[in-house]
Amino acid sequence: MEPFAPLNIPLRRRLQTAAVLQWVFSFLALAQVCLAAFVLLALSDWWILALLYAGWLWLDWDTPSSGGRRSRWVRSWTVWEQFRDYFPITLVKTVDLDPRKNYIFGFHPHGVLVAGGFGNFCTEATGFCRLFPGLTPHLLMLPFWFRVPVFRDYIMFGGLVSSSKSSLSYLVSRPEGGNVAVIAVGGAPEALDARPGALTLQVLNRKGFIKLALKHGAQLVPVFSFGENELFDQMENPSGSPLRRLQNRLQSIMGVALPLIHARGVFQYSFGLIPYRKPIHTVVGKPIPVVQTPSPSSEDINSLHQLYLQSLTDLFEQHKHTYGLREDQHLTYI
């Protein structure tokens, strides 16, 4: 691979790189920029605008936990098509889903920045609404981010909502159906193991979404995103190492993981924070029928959890050869 990008790269590829650059910036720095801008506005002669927004924020505080406030216009921006084509990202449907029911999509693996989750469920670039008519996807994100002024409004436009228990319950308890709650089950801790070739999922002790699926009768759907872990390299941080202990400590305090990642740059291919051009194929599996159980027992939860893990394993094994994995590669659950 050449260390520097050739000068004669087609314009379409440059536009794709620019689209991914703004997405990386949005994930890694936009929240901090929005917070700083709000503080500066509050300290300026235009402080009244900051005060008015603070009032709006107070009135709108619960919206991220009540279905959010999506914008079809934002989800359909052309920049998301460029973002999709960079990798590229593909959404793969295996069966039809009944729009009269509510669903919980268990998204695996988390990866570093959940690129497949964002591209497929926060934009219309891969055609979610065309593939699954009558369903509305919501990608769940840590509640912390919805407390940042302006940034919260921007991410809600894409269909992001809070990952709080009340938020998930709100989505899957709608009697009219048609809601899809997408959960990156492994959460922030799984991002610390996201590196090329990784097939270890943190799911054995993740049962909260199982309990809520039972409580509200939501159908469970395993989703595996092939290629999600191939986008970034990560510094070695084996369990028990000083770096991993520090990362775990920071994650427990801040609620967000801080993987030390690197991939390529904008003008060179040797080092940077732009993900590699690796294809992502997000496969949506078959729904697991769930009988509503208002007060599920531990036995109910464990039984459905085992069924979910088996369905996820089957989904992976059925499709791994199609997307370039070897016969001896299998999922590991921790």
Automatic annotation (TrEMBL):
Entry annotated with the keyword Endoplasmic reticulum = yes
- Any transmembrane segments, and where? 20-40
Enumerate the UniProt keywords alphabetically: Acyltransferase, Endoplasmic reticulum, Lipid biosynthesis, Lipid metabolism, Membrane, Transferase, Transmembrane, Transmembrane helix
Query: Under what name is this protein listed?
Result: Acyltransferase
Enumerate the subcellular locations listed in this protein's record, separating them with semicolons.
Endoplasmic reticulum membrane
At the top of the EC hierarchy, this enzyme's class is: transferase
Spell out the molecular function terms from Gene Ontology: diacylglycerol O-acyltransferase activity
Query: Taking the first listed entry, what is the main subcellular location of this protein, grouped into a coarse class?
Result: endoplasmic reticulum
Per the UniProt entry, what is one GO biological process?
triglyceride biosynthetic process
Topology within the bilayer: Multi-pass membrane protein
- Pfam families listed in its UniProt record: DAGAT
EC number of this enzyme: 2.3.1.-
Keyword Transmembrane helix recorded: yes
What protein family does this chain belong to?
Answer: Belongs to the diacylglycerol acyltransferase family.
Q: Which GO terms describe its cellular component?
A: endoplasmic reticulum membrane
